[in-house]
Amino acid sequence: xxxxTHILQMSEYxxxxxxxxxxxxxxxxxxxxxxxxxxxxxxxxxxxxxxLLPILINAKPTWTCYEDSGNATRNMTQNYTMxxxxxxxxxxxxxxxxxxxxxxxxxxxxxxxxEGIPSLITTIQMLGVFLGACITGQLADKFGRKKPLYxxxxxxxxxxxxxxxxxxxxxxAVLRFFIGGLVGGVLVTNFVLPLEYVIPSWRxxxxxxxxxxxxxxxxxxxxxxxxxxxxxxxxxxLVGLPMLLSWRLVPESPRWLxxxxxxxxxxxxxxxxxxxxxxxxxxxxxxxxxMVR
Length: 293
Prior knowledge:
It contains 14 helices and three strands.
């Protein structure tokens, strides 16, 4: 009975969405819904930076291994760094990394016997992504879509900024775990929220089109012009701060409010959508009746 009531409520809600007008050629996709979709999707750009930053900050610069005799040196390119390691895969006594750019590898000498550590850190990060997505899914069902989205996004920027000051790879790995968890959490709510503002025929579009690729493309020039890994990490965190100003522009999901029996709050958002889209207020009679069954 509960499931049938919920299905009826959502069916009536989707009928209401169809009464909220269209935005140009976007049939049944109103201007207000389009605004919510764009704003929420923009979160993906800074989140992509946080997620994909290891591509740049884990890069291995060229380095020189000095022989014990102190006479000759061997200049090693990325393709031949293993040749600089001792027979037991230990690092040589003295080395110098190229100054073209810095990374966590040059910072903590993650080569030779330590060369697997960057991959380990990435694995730890991805474990965080998995756990964060699972946990946030439950939180979003209980507390709504908006609050977890903005709270986790804020925490993500804070931890990303803090990771720029890590003094050891162990500390950095712990921070990347929590950063990964917050990335997974933001992506869950970022994906669901716009979908709950549109009818089913638009959900594939909203789910597939976003600004993740934009973040990936912008990360390349950022990495080109900012060669220090700590500075790059700080910049990518600070640039994402303006997204927090969109708090007032993105309301809670009416669909989630209805599922929690909060009809009046959902009604106010629906009426706001109608006014913004410059259409008549939709008929909410059947939707209201579905709430009391």
